Amino acid sequence: MQVVSLRSDAHAESEPLSGRKPASAMIEIDHVSQRFQTSGKQSHLALSDINLTIEDGAFVSILGPSGCGKSTLLYIVGGFVQPTDGVAKVKGKAITGPGPDRGPVFQEFALFPWKNVLGNVMYGMRQQGMKKSEADARGRKLLEMVGLKGYENFYPKELSGGMKQRVAIARTLAYDPAVLLMDEPFGALDAHTRTRLQNDLLDIWDTQRKTVLFVTHSVEEAVYLSDKVIVMSRSPGSIKEIVDIDLPRPRKRADLLLDARFQKYIVDIEKMIDDGKDHL
Amino acid sequence: MTVRGVLKTLSPLFACIGLLCVWQIASLRLDTESFPTALESIKAIPSILGDKGSLLNILDSIRRMTIGLVLAVMFAIPLGLLMGRIKAVAAFFNPLMMIIYPVPKAALMPIIMLWMGVGDVSKILVIFLGVSLPIIYHAFQGSKAVEEKMLWSGAAMGMSAPMRMLRIVLPAALPEILTGCRTGLVLALITMITSEMIARQSGAGNILFNSLDMAQYDTVFAMILIIGAMGIIFDAAFEKLRLSLVRWSQPRDDMPLSFT
Amino acid sequence: MNQERINSVLLGITPIVLFIALWQSLISFGFAPTSLLPPPGAVFGKLAKDFFNGDFLHDIAATLIRLFAGFGIAVVVGVFIGLAAAVSPAVNAVVKPLVRVLAPIPKIALYPALLLILGFDHASKITLVTADALFPILLSTYYGASMVEQKLIWSAMAAGTPRWQILFKVVLPAAMPSILTGCRIGLVISCIVVFLAEMITSTDGLGHMLVQAARTFQTVDMFVPLIMISMLGLILNSLLHWLRSYLLRGFPEV
Fold first, then answer.
1. What ipTM score was computed for the predicted complex, to two decimals?
2. Chain C neighbors (3+ CB pairs < 8 Å)
3. Which of B229, C121, C122, C163 is such that its CA lies 20 to 30 A from the CA of C248?
C-alpha cells in the first residue's frame, strides 16, 4: 500500500525526489539553502540544497538531531524565515511571508497571555474578518472538539501544558489553514499527555485531512503519526533519507508497539540517525 | 574592530555633539540674553573649574555624595537580602517603605537642617536616605528570586545560614543589587544637587542657583554641563564595574524585533 | 492562609505605630522641644483642619495638575519612542545613544535652564517632571517590546495580521507588564520631582507650602505637606496597582 493513497483521490504515485511534480503537490521546496550569519564574518550553513515535495493531505514528519535545521525548514515553509537560496512554494505559489493558509503550532504554545482561551481561538477568525458572533460560536465548537469545553473563559496561565497546546491547536485550526506546521508541538509535555495529544491529533487529521508538516526528534512519534518520515543530518543540514511508513490506518498505539513492522521502522531510522553522528 | 563597531562605540559622542548643535541653533534662533549658546557655555567651564573656591565646592559635594552612598550601600544591601529571605522581615519593613518612597528625601532638608544645622551631617544624612530605598528594593527583589534549590544544596554541603547568605544569596542577587546601586548612584547625585539648591549654603547646586540669581547665564549653563557630565561619567564608570563583576549574568538582549 | 495575611498586615503596621510612638515619646519625655518637633497629634490635626482650607486645596490642585500633566506626557512619549526603538533599527540607532547620554544626567540640574527658557509658570515644572519620568518608562517599554517572544508575533502573522497591526495587537499588549513597571517608577519619580521643583521656585503647590513654613519656622506646617505628598504617592500607587492587576489579569506572576 502506498502511503499517499490514504486519500481516495490521491495518486498512488509517490516519488517526490524524482523531480516529477505530482498533481496534488501542496508544498514544494526547490533547492533551498539557508545560511546564518554567526559572530563576525563567519556563517553557518543551516540547510544545504533541500528538495522536497509534500502532497496535499499527507502527514509528513521531519526527524533529525538537534541543529540539523529541521525547525528552520519549517519556518521557511511558514514564511517566517526567508531562505538564502532557492524557492519554497505552497500550492504552486512562492512563499513570501506568513499567511493563513499555513498555521503554525509551536512547542512553546505561544498563546496570547492577555486573551482568554476563547479570545485566543477567535483571534485568527476575527483577523480574517469573520463576524464576532460567528467566530464565538465556531470557537466554542473547536474548543469542544479539542476537549476543552467549559474552559472558554480561563486564561492560558491557568491551564496545564497539555491543555495549552490543545488551545494552540484549536487557535490554528480556527482559521482553517491548508497546512499545519507543527514545531515539536509535544516536546514540552510529559509522556502520558503526549500520547493522548498524539491520538487526538490523529483523530483531527483523520476528519480534516490537512497537510501536516511535523518536526520532532522522537523517532517513535514520527513513525507512529506519519505517512512519510524525512530523516535529516546536520552540518550542513540536508535530507539523508525519506522513509515511507507503510502502516495501516487508523493506527492504534497499543497494537503498533507489538507490530514487527513498526519496530523495524524505528530501528532502521534510529540507525540512520546514529550514522549521522559521524558528521560531528 | 570593524567600522560599524567603531561607529557604535562612538555613537554616544555623536549624540552629545548632536545635542549641542541643537542647543546652539535653538539659542541662536531664540536670541535672548538668558539663553546663551552652547559655545558660550562651554567657554565658561574653564573659569568655573579654574576658580579655587568653586572647584573646592564641587569636590566637597562629591565627597559628601560618596560618603552618603557608601553608608547607604552598607546598610541597604544586608537589609534587602534579609527581607528577601525572611518573610517576617519583609512584612515588617514593606509598608514603611511604601510610605517613605514617594516622599522626596531632599524635601526633608529644611527639617533636618533645623535639627542638625547646615553642616555635612545633614547633607550626608539626606543623601543616605535618598539612596537607601532603591538599593533595599533591588536587593530584596534579587534575594527573593534566588532559587530555593541552590540554598538546599548549600545546606546539604553543610553551610550555616549566615554562610549561605554570604556565599549563595549575595552573589546570586548581585546583578539585581548592582542595578539598584546604579539607580542609587544617579539618585545620590540628584539628591546632592537638590539639597544644595534648597539649603543654598555650598556645593555645586548652590553655585548653579547663585549664578541664576546673579543673572550670570553662561555660568548657569556651564554648571549644568558640568553636572550633566558628572552624571554621565559616574554612570559609565559604574557600568564598567558592573560588567566586570557580573560577567556571568545574561546580558539584556536588545536586538530589534524582526517583523519589519 | 487568612491568618497569615492578618499577621503580615499587623507586622507591617508595627513599625509605623512604633515610629509614631517614638515621635510622641521624644516630645513627651522632653528630648525634643515642640518648636523643633511638633507632636504627631498636632500635625495630623492640622492636616485634617487644612482639608477645609481653600488655600491648601489650591496647593494640592496645583501640585496634582503639574504631576499629572508631566507624568501623562512622559507615558505617551516614552511608550511611543520605546516601541519605535524596539521595532525600527533606524530609530534604535538614533534613540539609543541619545538615551545613554541623557538618562544619567540629573534632570533637576536642568531646572534653572528650563526656568530661563520656559518661565516660572507651570510649563517649566511640567517639563521637568516629564524629563525625569520619561526615561524609566521609555527604557522599560523598549526592553519589554524587544523581549516579546518571536513566536507570538509569528502566530499572529500566520493568522493573517498585517505587519503594521502587529505593533498594537501583539507587541504593545505583550510588553504591557514591563511598561506598567516603568510607569510605576515614573510615577514615584514624578511625585518627588514636582515637589522639589515647587520647593525651589514656586508661588503655590505643596513644595512651596513647605518652604514657606520653613522660612517662618512653622514646624507643624512643614510636616503637613510632607505627609500629604506621601499620601498622594500611596493613593496614586494603589490606583496604578489596581489598573495593573486588571490589565495583566491573564499574565502569570503579577
1. 0.85
2. A, B
3. C163
